[in-house]
Specification:
Elements: H1 2-12, H2 16-33, H3 39-47, H4 51-72
Helix pairs in contact: 1-2
Protein name: DUF2267 domain-containing protein
Length: 77
């Protein structure tokens, strides 16, 4: 999140408190629009976590969802 805060300070001229508040507000709005299961990934993006780690998390989530859907429709029998 610090990277986003610094970028807002540099590009828009916000002071540190304003920039932090802006990033937190955006983060809250994004989270309000997506299922709770995505909140961890969103937090990871804003924390600057490695993209490879995010891809692995997404693959794990999607794989688990695919397995559940397959089971619901008679797959994997």
């Amino acid at each position: 999140m610090q990277e986003f805060i610094q970028e807002l300070q540099q590009k828009v001229g916000l002071n540190p408190d304003q920039a932090k508040q802006a990033v937190e507000t955006i983060l809250e709005k994004i989270k309000a629009k997506v299922p709770e299961s995505f909140h961890g990934a969103i937090d990871s993006i804003f924390s600057g976590e490695n993209v490879d780690n995010l891809v692995q998390k997404a693959e794990g989530f999607l794989g688990g969802a695919g397995d559940k859907l397959s089971g619901m429709f008679g797959g994997g029998k």
